[in-house]
Write a structure and sequence with these properties.
The complex is a heterodimer of chains A (253) and B (402).
Chain A: E1 23-34, E2 41-52, E3 56-60, H1 67-74, E4 82-87, E5 90-91, H2 97-107, E6 108-112, H3 123-134, H4 138-151, H5 167-179, E7 185-189, H6 197-214, E8 217-221, H7 225-228, E9 233-238, E10 241-246, H8 248-251
Parallel strand pairs in A: 3-8, 3-9, 6-7, 7-8
Antiparallel strand pairs in A: 1-2, 1-4, 4-5, 9-10
Helix pairs in contact in A: 3-4, 3-5, 4-5
Chain B: H1 3-16, H2 18-56, E1 60-65, E2 67-69, E3 76-78, H3 84-93, E4 97-111, E5 114-123, H4 126-130, E6 135-138, H5 143-148, E7 152-155, H6 157-164, E8 173-176, E9 179-187, E10 201-205, H7 206-214, E11 221-226, H8 232-246, E12 257-261, H9 262-305, H10 307-316, H11 320-357, H12 365-391, H13 395-400
Parallel strand pairs in B: 5-10, 7-9
Antiparallel strand pairs in B: 1-11, 1-12, 2-3, 4-5, 4-8, 4-11, 6-9, 7-10, 8-9
Classes of the chains: A alpha/beta (253), B alpha+beta (402).
């Protein structure tokens, strides 16, 4: 199909291994403003931060503090109203919708609170989906999806649809889907929000081990301190600004 | 994302809700089926009629007396019949024609205990060539029989069946009204055409019919055939001017006779069926349009229902074009499946109807191709708006949708 090539934009391919880049994500004085005049809402109000390669960052804060907006911008689902966001040196604010889609396709994996698996489609197909958009041939797609399901301990549930899987299993499928393209960055928006404590803990163990194996950068929104404690670093948002930034024991103390 | 994957995704989406997909495609199915059936039936009907006319004889002119429109009240009266002199004049003065006179009278034919109402045509041996209807058993009239007006006759196949019940009629005496006629020949079977049964005809020498049945020397119809193909027009014009002259029709008056050309009938019929086909086709096209709107409607609903799915795909890295193609292909696949089902049903319907009505089956690849391409086109045209709506969704809002 013309125009649907899976290759990344040339500029994105420059650094050989993304894990070599010291700073993966760089926000400089980023604002996100909705509405105008008296109804103006500053979801992000001048955020500056760097996230380096293979860092595991937890983003916390009360609801409406701008942490989800920050995640959307980090995940290239949204662009700043002002300020710059550089992903591996690329100014994301200058990209159009399709270029943002290509960034997400090749460099990012997403995990959501509500799992967001395609309904009535089995686990294997869900995991294959990002590879379909990358244009990976069918047989390779299948092998890689099975490997990814194996990595999250679900090789035996490849043919189960989301209705046949428990919440924890669905989230594992979602993680397999996020990681099947081997992206350098994993974005997780309250991944344990719909899970019980035991399952949440298992999932965090999975995050930690996968990250160690793959030297993955993880940005994760959560409002549970127990979960944030698994990260190396916690960012605490209030009213669109980062008010605390440091290791969990320091921020959560 | 390649074509096969896009097609597979579309087929999965369609297969996920089979009843709804079927109902959505139903408009297209009915539309294409009716277009295909209407047009093919129209063509079959035209062919059936032209076949029948060809069996009557294609270069044939029927000349019959018309009406006089004269007088202050505009009262019409039946015009004078023709005479043998008119026939003779046509034969001598117009080139390249065969002419057969006919004195026609209906009569009752009786053989044994059986009787039948028959159309008796008094004519000459030219009838067989002009009408393209010859004798299969026995013989034509002999010259002496024609000049003397002998009581002999040639019978059609139906009469043989109904009066003789399969016996050999040759040489028997058949009573026609009060005249006993010797049967000398049997006409070949023609098959019914336009409400008349040519196999129920009974032929006699014209003098015999005039004297014994009609009671006058009138000639009711003159059959003329042009020997050369394509000369019909010229012959028709010549016959008209000759007869106007012989019948003393004033230059400003209309003809008091009719010259009826089988080609005219064919053309008139083709025009009628052509117009009908266009009208029916237009109605069918409207139903296709309605089918397209149905597809658009359901696709719009589907986009709303699947907003979350679209959000997931966008987050995973689908570009606008990927989403646009996905929904467009889904609409096109849906309407194309509808189109194919419609083609099959329409053609099946044509077959069933022609078999039932005993018409020749005309399958028109042109209209099938048209119906098919129209269904594809409808899918594109009406799938575009929903597909654009889907592709234009903002990923964040789409992911948040319930």
């Amino acid at each position: 199909m013309p125009g649907a090539t899976s290759s990344a934009p040339v500029a994105l391919a420059a650094p050989q291994d993304p894990r070599d880049a010291p700073v993966v994500l760089q926000l400089r004085d980023v604002y996100k403003i909705y509405g105008s005049g008296s109804t103006e809402v500053r979801a992000l109000d001048g955020v500056t931060l760097d996230i380096t390669a293979s860092e595991f960052v937890a983003v916390m804060g009360p609801s409406g503090s701008g942490k989800s907006t920050c995640m959307n911008i980090l995940g290239c689902l949204d662009v700043p109203s002002a300020g710059t966001y550089r992903f591996r040196g690329i100014d994301v604010g200058k990209l159009d919708r399709d270029e943002l889609a290509l960034l997400r396709r090749h460099f990012m994996g997403f995990v959501f609170q509500s799992f967001n698996l395609l309904p009535r489609v089995d686990a294997l197909r869900n995991v294959e989906l990002p590879l379909v958009y990358q244009g990976v041939p069918r047989a390779e797609r299948r092998d890689r999806a099975l490997d990814a399901l194996g990595a999250v301990g679900l090789s035996n549930r490849a043919r189960a649809t989301s209705g046949q899987l428990s919440g924890g299993q669905q989230q594992r499928v979602a993680i397999a889907r996020a990681l099947v393209t081997e992206p350098p960055l994993l974005l997780a928006d309250e991944p344990t929000g719909n899970l019980d404590t035991t399952t949440s803990r298992d999932l965090m163990e999975l995050f930690v081990s996968i990250r160690r194996e793959r030297r993955l950068t993880i940005a994760m929104v959560t409002h549970e301190p127990d979960i944030a404690a698994y990260a190396d670093r916690v960012l605490y948002f209030v009213d669109g600004r980062v008010v605390k930034d440091g290791p969990p024991q320091q921020v959560l103390a | 994302m390649n074509v096969v994957d896009t097609l597979l995704i579309a087929l999965q989406a369609i297969g996920r809700n089979k009843l709804r997909s079927f109902l959505t495609a139903l408009g297209i199915i009915i539309g294409v089926a009716s277009v295909v059936a209407m047009v093919q039936l129209g063509q079959s009907a035209t062919l059936a009629v032209t076949d029948q006319i060809a069996s009557i004889g294609s270069n044939l002119l029927f000349v019959s007396p018309g009406t006089n429109r004269r007088g202050p009240g505009g009262v019409s009266t039946a015009a004078e019949p023709f005479e043998m002199d008119d026939v003779q004049a046509i034969r001598e003065e117009i080139d390249g024609v065969r002419v057969a006179p006919a004195a026609i009278r209906s009569a009752t034919a009786v053989y044994g205990n059986a009787n039948q109402t028959v159309s008796v045509t008094g004519t000459t041996n030219e009838y067989f060539t002009v009408r393209n209807h010859d004798v299969v058993e026995g013989r034509r009239f002999e010259e002496s029989e024609l000049t003397s007006g002998a009581a002999v006759c040639i019978v059609g196949a139906t009469l043989v069946d109904e009066l003789y019940l399969g016996q050999d009629p040759l040489g028997t005496l058949l009573r026609v009204n009060r005249t006993a006629c010797r049967v000398v020949g049997v006409l070949e079977t023609k098959g019914s055409s336009m409400g008349q049964d040519p196999d129920k005809t009974l032929l006699m020498p014209i003098k015999a019919a005039q004297r014994r049945l009609v009671g006058s020397l009138d000639v009711h119809t003159i059959f003329i055939s042009a020997i050369a193909d394509g000369a019909t027009e010229r012959v028709k014009a010549d016959v008209e001017s000759l007869l106007r002259q012989r019948r003393h029709v004033a230059p400003d008056d209309e003809d008091d006779f009719n010259v009826f050309d089988t080609q005219d009938v064919v053309e008139a019929l083709e025009q009628t069926t052509g117009t009908l086909t266009v009208f029916l086709g237009a109605i069918a096209a409207v139903s296709l349009l309605v089918g397209g709107i149905g597809i658009m409607n359901i696709m719009l609903v589907s986009v709303t229902e699947r907003t979350r799915e679209i959000g997931i795909r966008l987050a995973i890295g689908a570009r606008m074009g990927d989403i646009l193609r996905q929904f467009l292909v889904e609409a096109v696949v849906l309407s194309t499946i509808g189109g194919v089902i419609g083609l099959v049903l329409g053609t099946g319907g044509t077959w069933a109807a022609t078999a039932q009505l005993d018409m020749p089956l005309v399958l028109s690849p042109g209209i099938m191709l048209l119906g098919f391409s129209f269904s594809v086109f409808i899918g594109i045209a009406f799938g575009l708006i929903p597909a654009r709506k889907a592709a234009g969704l903002n990923p964040i809002d789409a992911l948040r949708a319930e």
